[in-house]
Structure formats: C-alpha cells, structure tokens
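quick one: flavin-adenine dinucleotide bound model?
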Amino acid sequence: MDFRESDELAAHRDAARAWVRANVRPEWVDEQRRSGCHQTPALHERLARDGILAAGWPKEYGGGDVDPDYARAVFDECARTGLHFDGWSTTSMVLHTVLHVGTEEQKRRYLPGALRGEILIALGYSEPDSGSDVAAAKTTAVRDGDAWVVDGQKMFTSTAQVCSHVFVLARTNPDAPKHAGLSLLLVPTDDPGFECRPIHTLGGQVTNATFYSSVRVPGTALIGEVDQGWNAMRVALVYERGVSGPASVDWSLAPDLAAWADGARRPDGTPVLDDPLVAERIGRIAVEEEVSRLLGGWMNWHAAQGGVPGTEGSMRKLYWSESGQRHLADALDVLGAEGLLAPDAPDAPAGGMFEHEFRAAAVTTIYGGASEVLRDIIAERCLGLPRSRPQVKPARPAGTG
Ligand SMILES: Cc1cc2nc3c(=O)[nH]c(=O)nc-3n(C[C@H](O)[C@H](O)[C@H](O)COP(=O)(O)OP(=O)(O)OC[C@H]3O[C@@H](n4cnc5c(N)ncnc54)[C@H](O)[C@@H]3O)c2cc1C
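yep, here:
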C-alpha cells in the first residue's frame, strides 16, 4: 500500500468540498443536534441523486460510475461539517451482508432500492439483556407457512425512527445451542406490530427501543440460511467495525483547535498557542489523527482488494475511538471554561463542536464492538494469543445432524 496522497485523491477532496458547499445546508447540523436523529433525509436524497451512495457497488445491483474515493471524500467532508449519516452506515453494512449471503432475488430487490436512497436499514441486534453477547438474543421468529412471525424487543435500534427496515437478529430454533439457532430478517417498520420508542443519550443522539408484536414478514425477508444467522452476522460485524461503521469517518480536531489557540489570548496578551504545553498537545492530536487516518486507508485498501477487513477494521475502530476520546478530553483541557460552551451558546469555540463531540464520543468505545472485545480479537487473531473463551463452532443447517 502506498501511504502518500495521490494528486487524484487531493482533486477528489477539492471536488468533495465543492459538493458540500453546493449541497449541504448548515441548519441540518443544528437540526441533527436538536432532534438527536443522526440521519438527514434531505442530505440522503442528494447523495443518492448524485450517485454517491451507489459508488463502488456492483453495476448489476444498481452500482454507479462515481469514483468510490470521491464518494468517500464527500462523506468525510460532510462529517467535517458536523453531520452524521448513521442510517446510511448501517444500511451499507446490511447491503454488504446481503451481497455475501443473500439470494440473487434479494440482491436485486434490496441493493438498487437502497442505492437510490429509498431503503434505509437500522440494526436490531442488541436487546435489554444482550449487547456484547449478542448471540444471547431472545427475540423470536416462528415459521408460519411461507412467512415468519417476529416477537420481542430490541434496544438501541439507532435511526429506526427514519428507517424503512430493521435487520433483526431472531431466535428461530430455541432448542439449538445459543449460536446455532439464530436467523436474520429484514423487518419493515411500517408493520402495525412494530413500535419505536426514543432513548435519549448523553451524547445528544436519540436511539430507540423497538418492539415487535406478531410482525409477519415473508420468507424472502430471511437473509442467509435458517438458523445460520450467526455466520451471516459475523460478516455484518466485520463491516460495522470496518469500512461502513462509525470509524469509517475521520475525526479532524487538530486544525480547529490550533485555529482557536492561535486566536485566543492568555492573560499577558500572547496567543494561547505560544504555550509549549498547548502546542505539544495539539501536535500529538495531529499525529494521532494521521495514524488513525492511515489505519482507515489500510482498512479501505484491504476491502478494495476484495478482502474482508476483519482484524484491520477492529484495530482501526479501537484506535479511532480511544484516541478520539483522549483528543476531545485534551481539547476541553486546552479550551478551559470556553470548552464547556454547548453548540447553542453564541461564543462557543468552533460552534460548540468540542463540547458536543466530547459527549458524543463517550459511546464510541461501546457500540460497534466494545474496546475489550476488540482487544480480544486482536490478541487472538493477530498475536496468536490463547482464546479467553470457548471456540464457537459454525452452526450447521437444520437436519444435518
Ligand atoms: C448510542 C448507542 C447506539 C447503539 N446503536 C445500536 C444499534 O443501532 N443497533 C444495535 O443492535 N445495538 C446498538 N447499540 C448497542 C451496542 O452495540 C451495545 O451497547 C454494545 O454491544 C455493548 O453491549 P451492552 O451495552 O449490553 O454492554 P455489555 O455487553 O454488558 O458490556 C459491558 C462491559 O463489559 C465489557 N465486556 C463485555 N463482554 C466482554 C468480554 N467478552 N470480554 C471483556 N469485556 C467484556 C464491555 O466491553 C463493557 O465494558 C448502541 C449502543 C449505544 C450506546
């Protein structure tokens, strides 16, 4: 892998900035912060209209001609304005899973619709009693003729309030061992048996508890084989920690912090940036943000070669989330009392971004794979250290003994 930024990438970045200037409205950031919903339908429509959602996907399933590096640059630039697009991130993880384990009919049904911006999918894995131990899910799906009937509750079904579907992990065989009796279903959110209730979080994000009361879905909504959901889910989790997950977007705090420190004055009238301790902290943030960016490039490069970025994604997610939390804590230290000004305060540095992101970053070491779990993965798969828990054998199809 070549770590240098090519002229082509720099040109994509310029074009992406121009796209953001022409298409992104500053009030969308305020709206996301006010509502807590990290998905803006108007932005999504524009990303679909200009082929940015469809970039890099197979042509036969609705993929387009837009260069994936340009598309990535557009997402990066959107994120720099403070916008989130979590609904698209989760949708993209599910689409990767459908590509890996779905039927031809499912690929032709779900991919083109999602790439046109018409299908948006939330993740329904976690439950009140199961998060990291996601295979302990209790929500059930029971076969009824050609259909499945889903009953249960999911926790933290983020962006479900604006999604057309939830990718539900359900128990289809209560008699099989924990990992062997699970299946994945795409459940439409317009079913009368579906209910979505908001959960307000410290970071300002409003996620959801979702409830399923005799929700009936056709047999074609089952993604992958019956009772083989755990294997399909492992594909989805790799993408969640890798190219499509929260860590797929870079943080870039150092330039804003340096600009503030250059303009702000110490009691003696000199710039805050003249304080060597401040300059050193900002320098460290800049270096670590670059390391995180390069780990992201390595992960994307691996995916572009046709690989599934498993351990690469875990490393990047771990480094991105833990260094990001450190950087935001450092930034608040440097900013002093001004750092506590929230986005609605008129004089808040960088529009209150530091205060807001500090709160928002608290969950980044929990969702998409908690740090302790990612460390286990890296220790076992990269360093060859012994497993800390028993090996889970891949589930066998029902009836194979
Ligand atoms: C804002 C937010 C958004 C979310 N969005 C979604 C979503 O869209 N869809 C969805 O399905 N879920 C979502 N989640 C849920 C998230 O994936 C879980 O919170 C996460 O998996 C952790 O599960 P838990 O909360 O039950 O904590 P636990 O699993 O109970 O973890 C508690 C602590 O124990 C540690 N721990 C757990 N297992 C191990 C282990 N094997 N070894 C060492 N330490 C361990 C953890 O690292 C953690 O520190 C979201 C969560 C949050 C906070």
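The first helix runs from residue 7 to 23.
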